[in-house]
Amino acid sequence: MDSTTDLPKIDFTSNFQNIIGNALSSTPETRQAVDPSTEELLYPVPLSKQSDVDNAVSAAKAAFPAWRDVSYDERAQYILRYADAIEANLSGLQELLMKEAGKPISNATGELGFALAHLRETAKLRLKEEVIEDTEERKASVRYVPVGVGVGIIPWNYPVLLGLGKLGPAVLTGNTFIWKPSPYSPYTALKLGEIAAQIFPSGVVQVLSGDESLGPFLTAHPDIAKISFTGSTATGKKVMQACASTLKRLTLELGGNDAAIVYDDVDVGKVVQKIGPMAFMHSGQICMDIKRLYVHEKIYDEFLAGLVQVVKSFKVGGGGDPDAFLGPVQNSMQFAKVKDLYSEIGKQNWQVAVGGEPVASESKKGFFLPPTIIDNPPDDSRIVVEEPFGPIMPVLKWSDEDEVVKRANNTNMGLGASVWSNDIAKAEKLARRLEAGSIWVNSHFELSPYVPFGGHKWSGVGMDWGIVGLKGWCNTQASWVRKTF
């Protein structure tokens, strides 16, 4: 590649098309997503059908052999060039992300910044052949070979980070990749595909937009070798069932109901400032947000009062509001689900520490809900048992270590969990008893392109990112070489 070639500049206000074989591809029918801050319709996007899937898979399958044979270092250079091209179009992507996801500026900037860093750091990773035995007679080793055509099915909450977080490892390991964005947030994906079409060889990276029928077309296609899905547990089960008929490789990163356990020896003023944002970031619409907060009874009242003050400081505003920390719920379907959970406040007589049931207003547009804390509800309450995926969470008391571990683990979910204490050894010992794919001490939700990310139990199968994530895009191959025969 010629590094001096001008980087592509993309129009982010029109012409949203599928990317198939490095060309813009329209469909007879289109659909429109909604700006969650205003409830206004956004731009028309393709409504892909079986024929579009077939065309994209054919292009990906044709591109695979040559791409597989490109060296790791050369594939990494393509990825780095792609990252540079994305950065050259960052302002347009940011405006689009704020519209489709309802993200305040700080959140949109953060997602794009982390996504770019993730892509560039992923390009540094390598899967090397592992030599098991090497004698005069023979050599035995383990290799990791790309599976072929891969698909990333991306959710609506972090459409750029989670999309690029699948694309990078997939193409670095020699696979071709089809990106299927959520129907609720297709816009940034289509434009990232448009950028990719000017960087990668034809068929290596493609993007298909559609409605809820598109996913089943992909999971059923016999020439697709792997599905990497991020989304709800309920949908993940359907994806797993659909992939079984063709024995597709599969990675599922599903829902979470993350617990955080706070000991009585913490600096309350400092910890509430950290936990507040980790519970309410993106209005609670992150799988690894803190969803259940267990605070030791000795500091419970002080801690809750401090946390309430932190949450009261969060400004709620629409996408693009420079002062907002919390935006709207991203779509009408999720808005209805979270509102239903809010309606339990009065029915169950939950004690509200801050926030409460929303007041309906015909004049106010947008899927906004007040950030809400429920004070020590029963453990069998919906707010404790279910993942809200909205700006509402319970704070609960605990006193006994064994008991709080049992309560934290008493869920089908197992994505993340954290422990907070000034005694690091004690906190780490407790954290290791928690049933989750990621555990943290004195933080929550830390991520790195070098560290795998995924869940236990109903929170997923397999992991993304890091060396573990790269292996998930490969078949393991045992290699035997007889030197004398």
Automatic annotation (TrEMBL):
It catalyses: an aldehyde + NAD(+) + H2O = a carboxylate + NADH + 2 H(+). GO terms for molecular function: aldehyde dehydrogenase (NAD+) activity. InterPro entries: Ald_DH/histidinol_DH, Ald_DH_C, Ald_DH_CS_GLU, Ald_DH_N, Aldehyde_DH_dom, LUC3-like. It comes from the Eukaryota. Pfam families: Aldedh (PF00171). Its EC number is 1.2.1.3. It is an enzyme of class 1 (oxidoreductase). The active site is at residue 253. This is aldehyde dehydrogenase (NAD(+)). It comes from Triangularia setosa.
